[in-house]
Amino acid sequence: MNQFGLCFNSSNYIFLQTQNGLTPLAKVARVHYVKCLNNPIRREVPSSYTNAIVKKETVKKTGKKEHHLWMKKDSVGSGQKALNLVRIVSELPNEKEAVYAALDKWTAWEAEFPLVAAAKALRILQKRNQWLRVIQVGKWLLSKGQGLTMGTYDTLLLAFDVDQRIDEAESLWNMIVHMHTRSVSKRLFSRMITLYDHHSMPAKIIEVFADMEELGVKPGEDTTRRVAHAFPKLGDEGKQKLVLKKYLNKWKYIHFNGERVKVRREAWVE
After folding, report:
1. Which listed CATH number (1.10.150, 1.25.40, 1.20.120, 1.10.3430) goes with 164-270?
2. Which domain of life is it from (predicted)?
3. 37-40 contacts: CB < 8 A, separation 24 or more?
4. 90 and 130 in contact (C-beta within 8 Å)?
5. H-helix or E-strand containing 19?
6. pTM of the model
7. Residue 77 — left, alpha, or beta (φ > 0 → left; ψ -120 to 50 → alpha)?
């Protein structure tokens, strides 16, 4: 096998060492001492060569500038728009035509539908317990094909419950189940069961619970208790025990001597 190496002499010439001898390559201005590749003696290396190595090691890689295919919409000002919407609808008479006309005017000069502002307005109206306005704004959103989210549905169902609009709640619920069958959240199932429980409709509670089981949605503790209490009202106490045994957690947390303690549920009288 051929042996090659870089060597330097006192006259600062660089040579390529092979089996056939030394071949001069170039002259350098300044050298440092290193070992030759095939000869363990001290040899000279040009400073430009070592400087290049140092510079290469110390160069920091600059990160690539990221380019996104999407741009986050600027929601600055949506809070003010929401407050403006709340002010507008709060000053209107309780007439659907007047409310819808004002809402259409509110969006007339918007380049894009102000969905974020409308959602914030719904939350503000809910906190202020202005349930009629929640219903009006929510139904207007749905009529525009906007706000078709579980959050909007939940707010509307709650408003229908408080305002005792059971028929409208059922119509909305049927629409939700038809459109989102496999993606209806546990929260919405619980909301509908709570609504029926508030208005003493045990048969409807069992219907919604049957849909939950069919879709594999596990009820929470509060929903489980409401369903369990509905069965005796329908004369079926046996299923009440089955539901509690299947879905009620065997463990619960209680506060004892100032501490949160985990205990078996059967050991305590409910």
Report:
1. 1.25.40
2. Eukaryota
3. 37/4, 37/5, 37/6, 38/3, 38/4, 38/5, 39/5, 39/7
4. yes
5. none
6. 0.66
7. left
